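ok so for the tutorial part 2 we go from a plain amino acid sequence to predicted structure tokens. step 1 is just haveing the sequence, like this:
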Amino acid sequence: MKLIKNIAIISILTAGVSCEKTENIVPDFPCTKEINNHPNAAKYQKLMERLLQIGIPGVTMTVITPEGTFSKTGGKADIKNNISLSPCHTMRVGSVTKIFTSVAILKLQDEGKLNIDDKINKYLPSTITDKLPNGNDATIKQLLRHQSGIPEYSTISNNLLISNYSIKRQSAAEIISNILEKKAVFSAGKGQEYSNTNYILLGMILKSISGKSANEVLKEKIISPLDLQNTFVSNEIPSSLSRAYNDIHDKGLMVDRTEIENNAVGGEDILDGGIISNSFDLATFLHALTSGQILSPKAFAQMKEFITITQDLGDLTHIKEYGLGLMKLETDHGIAIGHYGSVQSFNALLYHFPDQKVTVAIIRNGESTEIKKVFESKELFNYLFENK
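step 2 — the prediction. this is what the tokens look like for a chain of 388 residues:
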């Protein structure tokens, strides 16, 4: 959304920045988690091949259907050291994290520890809410649906500071301190505009209610119960993390931008986009959520109370509505619910097609204009359903 738009500008403005500042080699992670015996394996393989053909260095993809599961990887986790991507390697998933955050909030509501119609000043100190734009008016639900009017912290200037190594892995508290005393975009509940700040604040609410870090809440409520063995929400970077690349000049030359990725996220309690995972875990999570294994029916119904998106999303015209941490897409094969995610060069998508009971998760470790165009098009989903 807004972050995705900014990244294209950042890539141009920081084209001369040296990105590979460490010599870390991504370990070879051979594992037996590849699943290639799905009846539609050949069809899904064509989608993977299409993504690799447009220049993505490495891609991990999982599809869960009533007929079974397909899970496979292709390409490289580390180009310089010729390390092939395996199903046990991980990548940053960006704003797909927002689904996890929303579920954690609704889990606390199911436990009677909050109500999403409560104002956020019930759970955050007045030292923050008195200075936060709309801090004493916005509700938890308005944060979840981007209706709070609280301004976006992830601006072009902020991302330039990340790219220039002036900002490194800020915590939630540090991020919020940067927007205090700023003006609201609109009165709480009187508009709708995507703001990553909303989900930073939701992480702070999780921490306030639980007495634990927001990261620990996600582990306790979601990651551990679902046994997501390759999902990490932590200040530490797992050794399984792939490197990240960007074809800055769109000339077929991928530049290593791993250090910028690691500066952009990874601070304490960053729940707008801090999760590291693989496609198998992401698909397992959304499949469990949509099949009623995580939330109460009432809470999941609330997640699907969508409102029309009114802001300009550029080429993402198939995103029509936003719920509680869920985007609704209109595709050639019906609606899909889930989320896109972007950090700098890592990008992910996680969607469930309720009519077909199909869940798809794809994460990639490379960016270019062409890659972005193909990956974010609604035509990408045709590979899941059409004979090609």
